[in-house]
Protein 1
Amino acid sequence: MPLKDQLDALRTEDYANAPPDVTLARQRAVDDLIASGLAERAVHAGRLAPAFRLRDGNGVVMSSHEWLAAGPMVLVFYRGHWCPYCNADLRAIESAADDIRSLGASVFAVSQQTPCESRETVRLNGLTFPSLVDRGGKLAYAFGLRWKVSAELRALQEACGTDLSILNGEPSWTLTMPARYVVAPDGMVEYTDISIDYTRRCDPADLLPVLRHLSARSNH
Amino acid sequence: MNDRLTALKLFVRAGRVGNFSIAGRELGLSQPSASRLIAALEGDVGTALFRRTTRAVTLTEAGATYLMRIDAILAALDEADHEARGTGELRGALRIGTSSSFVLREIIPRLPRFMIEHPALRIELLSNDRYQDLVTEGIDVAFRFGPLPDSSATARKLMDVQRVLTAAPSYLDARGTPTMPSDLAHHSVIIGPAHLSPTFSFRKDGRIASVRVDSHLTVTITEGAIAGAVAGLGIAASSLNSVRTELESGALVRVLPDWDFGSMEINALFVNGKAIKPAARAFTDFLLGELRA
């Protein structure tokens, strides 16, 4: 099933099952994000991608500098495995991972989750790419994707058992807007797709035209 | 009396552009006549209004204060004449500043309807796709797109216009039709004043997608970018208004019509701190009525 259909099904289920006040609070959070203009100010195509040196769930250090030397990079920012939309998203990326790699690109997922939760995300979704630990969302902040959860939303999440201070291992209660970045070997962002509404994600197939173009360019 | 009035009008223009010869030309005076009139004015007023150097002419402190007062007086005189006339008929000169696209497509086609109502009004259209300095260019009202560069002008928003991407059918046949923003990576975009960077951003379904696009052609006027698109040279970004004719004739088609490419404001700009000429106000109201129709 295409990612869009999966997400639509999840959303329908959510509206049906979640109490109205929860749905309203989540919608309000999305509306606030849209109103804040945060996504407009995030790093977009045509800018240099902030560099990173992060560990994956197993403590192995990955550096953007090293990996870009080998080819373009696909960076997938997500919230956590506690978010069913993120799981669907990551599984869709996994389905496209071979295609992405055959075009010479590396794939990295990034979230604010602890190493333990990052490992769990990889295991749960059968990922063949690492999930990097962005503690405190410092990299997300550099990309302009990090936002602070409102008191209302926090109360709801705690009630649902999603305690971000435990899942992310620090008390800031900030989250990362889901986003995909295609970064060229020279560090330039070639393509981005930022989800202000966390229930909507771009299909991984959308990344392929850009990667093909980069691959063709590097062959000249 | 008329001599004194002419001298005052000349003084205001010379004070703004810093040049007697240019100011004189605007009023149909030779440089020597202009210099003479200013000298006579300084004699009448009893103080030097200008400091003359080999390179330029600048206002003295007294001249700068005098300029502000005289400017307001001339504007009030203009209003008084207009009111006394009582017919709403406009006279004198109206200097309008705007971009190439807007002057060709939106202003000039509508001018006959306006000018027939005001046969005694002389209109000067100053078309420039780059920044126009309202003060030094003596512009009474400027119609500009996009965000305002600074707060040096008083703005009255006319409307929002949709931004679009367009290309010639021949270009799309040869290079393929993009179905999503990332497809643009394979395409060539024509860079013009309406969109200066090779990055395009789109909104759809609660997401923002942006893509870097290659460009092989840059043009300094929007009309040039549109002509380039019609000639099949690439994809052009512009306001919907700027390509309406071409879209209707089929010379251009919309690219990625399902994606929101944003909008921009059309603003009427007036010089800060200066009374708005009746002719400028009347033309702005006229244009607004026409655009909204």
Protein 2
Amino acid sequence: MLSSVAERLYWMARYLERAEDTARLTYAYTQFILDIPRGSEPGWGSLIDIIDGHSAFDNRYKNYNERNVCKFLIADLDNFSSIRFSVKAARENVRTTRDVLPEQCWELVNELYIYVNANADKVKARQSRLDFLDQVLAMSAQIYGLISANLSHDHAYRFMRMGRSLERADMTSRVVDVAVMTAMDSKPGGEEASTWIWGHLLKSLSAVTAYRREIGPLVDADEVINFVFGDQNFPRSISYCLTDVRKNSKALRNHAQIEKLLLSMGRKLTRFEASRMSLEKLHKYIDVFQEQLSKLNFLVYQSWFSK
Amino acid sequence: MRKPLGETTSLIQTRKGFMKNCWEKYQSSGFFDELITEKGTARPVARKLVNHFCRLSPSEMVARGNAAELSIKEMGISFTIYSQGQNIDRAWPFDIIPRLIKSSDWAMVRQGLTQRSRALNAFINDVYNEQKILKDGLIPAEVVLESKDFKKPCIGFRPKYGVWAHICGSDLIRDEDGSFYVLEDNLRVPSGVSYMIENREVTKRVLPDLFKNYSVRPVDDYPSKLYSTLASLSPRDRKRPCVVVLTPGIYNSAYFEHAFLAQGMGAELVEGADLFVDKDECVYMRTVDGPQRVDVIYRRIDDEFIDPEAFREDSALGVPGIIRSWRKGNVAIANAPGSGVADDKVVYAFVPEMIRYYLKEKPLINSVKTYLCMIEKDRDYVLENIEKLVVKPANESGGYGMMVGPHASKRDHNKFRKLIEENPRNYIAQPTLSLSTAPTYVDGGIAPRHLDLRPFILQGKSSWVTQGGLTRVAMREGSLVVNSSQGGGSKDTWIVEPRK
């Protein structure tokens, strides 16, 4: 497998995952707002916090209102996390790796690209926005389905898995971080607010059913955080994502450094227990975790892509 | 439900007969038409096809046209043009009415093309080695030795089987009586074959019923034939040699095709930066498992850019040292560097001579009468008759820089007279040919449009010619310019077997 091709596949998977994550996030938030009594709606700015997009946002918009934030998350090409940008970048990477992917893969990604371009600007109304996001989620599920069913689970597949899992771990930790910050801002003892925040977090990660089956129907802050960090079976938990990176990197040559970092991250995760941490400590913990993720990304680059 | 009013019914009926009427009125006067005879009836081979199209209503035609356009968009069949400082990705232009050729007619053309390819390869091998044909005075030595495509680093090299141009795309046209002529041989990096395959794919998707009652030769075996040809060049004796497709990158107009062929062959699609030449003078590609040796490079980069050590120093697309490795016999390059020496419109004029000289055979396929401006007698004729002739620069492709006498202005005639006098070696002229036509779906009706045909000839251990090729259509009325970069379209090309 060519290093340059491996790199493109890795990024293709990261961008596809990013598009999907942004879609899921926007979808969950649009629905979340409907549950909140009038007058106490939280602002839309927290979505911009998640993707760390304030400077790009402020360049274009003044108000953090629903319309601007959704436009920024869905349609703006100068936001590197927007659905349109991510899909475009994913398509460019597929265009240059068509020769290793199943034939239909290019067509599906191209269809997604055509769909997003044609519809991304029509998302002002909530109804058409939800339809749009639904369609994006369905189409990306189709692409993953095709890849996992039709592509040999060889190096090409492994690099895509690594890209996807790293992007996921990154997004999951960001979503938790924003929930933590929202909880820090809310009044102490605000029982109701806490349920919204953590319940919404599960929805943003499509984790509601998995959480219910594993933990139970009651939404508890510590349980939720423990679940999205440490559950071994839920594919969007941080623990699961890191195990997946480890499993796929082990089949490649030159994986020693990554293995070492992953093991140390894993040990930290096993000892993780939300009830023993204050929200401030949790926020710092996630900061450190994010740094380690970018180190992982750097090691992937160094081990297999650099010339 | 109320029955539609009588008037509406008759309106629908006339609209239903509308396409039939279009086909009946169709006329292409003065040219050979691929589907319709001079009398206006369908040629025997095309009868069923024409009947099928006659039965479609105008709205069905529109629907099929749109379906084709959508398939092309979704399949991502595109080509890139460079315009106003940026690269634009355009959907591939396609006409839904196929062009049909009888298999018996095609058999003759195939033989003629193989013969040509053998002669051209013998010529290239000769001019880089003994130069017999020049010493015997058949071709003026300066035509070859002073050509910018005669590459000094290639002198004295003998590739496997003596074959230099492994992939050749020849442009064919048909004159008034339907005979095929070779208009030019593209021996550098001919493109278009992926579109030939995709055109068939689109027809199958949008007009599957059209194939009923026809036995059409498939075209999708090209990538495997190409792989066998390339694998036969491998310097190492391995069951599956490492074949790569070398592309200049995504901004090249034929990038779609490079990726298509790599995928079709299960080969890696590489850019210059993915390859390097090691101390052992072998070519390696950079992989996640470390360097891997490459046996055969199907390069889609021009000679000039392939190796900054041997050719253009400023090339960032190529691989330093690759020519050294090739000359050592450590890697095969297809087409071999230097093949372009035979892809010159002056050399073209001598191909019939080459066939007689190297193969001792009679040319099986016609060449177009060519006047060489470097020869005084020819030049005088060209200068005097310029308004009747097509003048072409000897060394351009893509239809650039040529002048079609009968369609050009007096000013252009004078401009080209001057150009020829300044640099006679650089120009040739040919009679204005009447390109054949075929019924084409334009503006909701059926009209004749001129077309050509580019088959592909493979030459390695053995030789092979595509079934048909890429048909390019000049979409503007009366126009002879078929290049897709200049508004040309394309058609699916059927080689049809006789009915059993």
Protein 3
Amino acid sequence: MSPLPFNLTQEELRAGAVGAALVIVAALLPVFDQAYYLALGVNIMLYAALCTAWTLFSGPTHYISLASAAFFGLGTYSVGLGIDHLPFPLLVLIGAGCGAVLAGIVGVATLRLSGVYFVIFTLGLAELVRQLVSWGQSKITTRMGLYVFTDFTEKHIFWMLLALTVLVFITGWLINRSRLGFAMQVIGNDETVARHVGIDTARAKIILFMISGAFIGIAGAICAPRYAYIQPNSAFNPTISFLVVIMALLGGTKRLWGPLVGVIPFTILMDFVTAKFPNHTSIVMGIAFLAIVYFIPNGVTGLIEQARTKLRSRMGAPAVKPGEVQP
Amino acid sequence: MSMPALSVRVARKTFGGLVAVNDVSFDVRQGELLGLIGPNGSGKTTLLNLISGALKPSGGEILLGGQPIGGLAAHHIAQKGVARTFQLVRVLPSLDAEQNVMAGAVFGHRRTWGAEARALARELLHRVGLGGREHVPVSAMTYIDQKRIELARALASDPRVLLLDEWLAGLNPTELQVGISLIDELRREGRTIIMVEHVMDAIRTLCDRCVVMSSGVKIAEGRVEDALSEPEVVRAYLGDEDA
Amino acid sequence: MQILVTGILLSGTYALIALGLTLQYGVARIMNIANGETLVAGCFIAFWLYVSFTINPILGLFVIAPLAFVLNWLIYEVALRPLVRRAKNRGQLEVDSILATFGLMFLLQGLMLLAFGGEYVNYQFLAERFMLFGSAYGLNRVVAFCAAVVIAGALYFFLYHTRQGTAVRAVAADPASANLVAIDVAKTSAMAFALGGALTACGGALLSTFYTFNAAMGIAFTMKALIIVIMGGVGDVRGAVLAALMLGVAETAVASLIDPGLTIAATYALFILVLLVRPQGLFGRRTT
């Protein structure tokens, strides 16, 4: 729990080992299936990366960002525009840069806005970017989209997204044990105290938002070859932003692995609904939002923790010392 | 004469038409414990907020060791060496005692990290009488213990000036004795402290000097007995009592 | 001139939608993202009444407004009141209610997609030319504008010249103090929310007489309403009307002078600009 020790604790080693094992198992997926399950796996991996990256910022600050689609689309377009001229890895980095820069601009601009205004600002911004890209594209080119031809197949994209997810997790873990992570904990508790102990709260939030935006940009860049034909309405699809919020909140944002708990079942559910009842996706998303607000405000991980505390007190066991996490 | 630790020069704060702090000036010497007293609503806490950067002054200047800090952001002022406690105690509820104190040690005037910050936090918890309770969640602590946490957090940055905003308020008589001797220790250690306080016994026991405010104006300054016996101060207090 | 008149005619409907939202957010403290869906529902019901029963959309308002009032009242009592009760502070209520109304938005949008399909719909009502200052305008637009003015006028009278209206304004200004002077804040909030929904639905019904609509366009109108509300100052009726005029004219100007493809982009750009420069509203005072 404590973010400070520089050497790994037992529990961290254990978590690391479990994580590594899960990554290896996941990486083997394309060996067994190249069709339906791989496509589903790509979706899960994509949202695992997106939601964990989103939570890096929104978890500790409780700011709900709906700008994910903008970062994602910028990543996709970085690849779409540059694929004929520059190597793919460089384009991914450019995508990350674009995401970070936009996040930085949003961060600087929205310092004075809080709560509800931040939500609608990010939503409006994502829409503005989408409209501008659509318009620019229709003016400059005659086509509505861009072609991206690469040698990447679905399994390559899967592996890249898996690697990205791992990278997001490692970054999140490093942040948690850094000054920045500790600063975010303090800010999350009491922003006034944070300022008075010497934390530049605005700077901390902007840095975190930029990191989060960069990762979402990378995810967009990795997905560009998957679309093959990129259009503003698919690359900047606002549904991405909403799904990210739903899945992350559903899983819970208190822990790094919280969003995963929401991503896996919800991606499978959405996949099923999209295939079987394509006209019902909005309804499912609506119900999910309502369920989160009314029944699971702290996410599934929050429910689990609550149940665990209740169980423990019922059994009369001594309270766990903070700093130890129950297996 | 050496440079004052903190100088307030014609500091002013207005809210719309209301003048909360009206051109107040005073110096705090190195190692001095200065009491800032006055009836409710006289602008003491506002003045403290100007010094700590919670509010921006509308006019005047505040100097920390000769350097202007008036109007800087709170985190800059904290990093330059001003630490404070709050009138209504503010702890970080989801963190344990040690982490609460570490928050003061990591980002402030003296920045430490890792094992060093942890050791400092433990030492300070011991100082304020919370030794052995490092891992108790602060939300489960009593009021005075939370106040101790706040004090330890403020001390953790090794501040050049410590601001205590009614740190003794709300304590019962026994706790008050403990609190007073704690502050007394800090004073003897040579800390520079400004304390806003209503508990007159504490002011008399602890303070070298005091500044008296009323309706935003400084009405007296000097040794405690002298300041308190000035007619205007008596009137301010009695007038307040009569009302 | 033509741009100005077209813009003003459009702004009448915008004003109604924005007044609806400003009542919901300014008084009931609910940032209702599903406001646009209420509008779309208004469009579809007006369309349905007109096509199936040949009920004139203006008369249809007398069905739509009470219906929307009751439904929004129910939404507030069932869905939003629990959030108000459990919220520890205004910040939490805002985040909770924006998430909940996002949920309502998707839910209502999904239901309307099922009921009406995703196609664009319009119908012919008073599609005649009407001469004004030497130029021709759709008569339906002129009628819609006049109806909007009447409704907005009635709202203004209600808010500024009746007891209940004064209570609404008091709650908007300060719920805690309103409570002290024996105003039933909970009831007033519910009423303001329901009234807001009714206004928005009327706006939708009027819009449908001259605008091609579909089930998915709600969010765009929520955004427009938000821009107007924020520009005019939250809870400020007069500000909302002025801001609606500005948005209507600005949109028409961009569409006819620059590029129709940029209309929506211009809306959002204006929105972001307003949030950045004057989040307290064009006519509001900065509060500390």
